[in-house]
Fold this protein.
Amino acid sequence: MDPRTDDQTVPVPPASNDATNPITTLATAASSRRSARPAAVPSRAEKRPTLRNSLIAGAAAVVLATGGTAAWAIDRFLVEHVEIADVSAYEADNSTVAAAAADNAADATDETEAVVTDSSYTDGDTTITVSAVTTGTGDDTLTYYVADVVVSDAMQLRSAFAKDQFGENITESTSTIAAANDAILAVNGDYYGFRDTGIVIRNGVVYRDDGARQGLAFYTDGHVEVYDETTTTAAELLAAGVWNTLSFGPAIVAGGTVVSGIEDVEVDTNVGNHSIQGEQPRTSVGVIEENHYVFVLVDGRNEGYSRGATLTELAQIMTGLGATTAYNLDGGGSSTMYFNGAVVNQPSNGGERGTSDILYVAP
């Protein structure tokens, strides 16, 4: 199935801090116009706990049932383990690249005045355009959101951690992290804090160096590469000019074509983090050319509004948008897109789920 067939592009309505975001009403109306079905049935998320939460609860139950203690499960999945309590200060002390990025951003601000509309942002050579797309009808309806981003400097694409801290199980909503960092656009990141492996480089600073899977590296010159974490080190990547890394995956587009076998990939063997197959809410980032990115957020688990997408469908959406490389990020209840002060999509939990980190565009 080609998810781009009979697409319907819907302009993003004005940003709002109200409990009900008008973008959700518009997207639902678009779906209704394409189907004679009555109002959408309750989402699957309302009918059952999220997969990750269910599996975490199940792990704790297994520990208890086998005569162990719940302490391990609570410590592993719930208790915050703070390794760096003040990330902003840590980055300032450890990244000369971050200082240069701040100087560049200040220079750009002095030279131009940003223009913001309901669905776009323009500041000099930096542009963001956000749109909603609905395909299919009835139970096959799929709704997703696209942010086309061109930056004047690759270091405008930044990362931020929940509570401005680094460690395991530290979470905040995407919108909370975005607002704290004055982001104009943000999506949830790779949920690094649910794992203790991977290479984590953020804003030119190394936070973790334990290669385990296929990662994505953003370079200061604006290009992006998929790489094998197990064949390099964080120090080598930093020396080569890496600005940010993401550690989730898999890569879904390479060389402008859909990667084969992606439906069989497991991210890792952690409880709740490897079951990424099937029709799910999705978050993905792709690159069209240097300093030109595309973010796609697919809503799901809500029949009649959006069923969710398979990894192959997500890859087809990305290639249709011109992505030459695209990478899958944490999805499910985490999938959230934020623009100009408001959440754009309808997270499948009925509201935002806390996450460890975001990827965002700085003004």
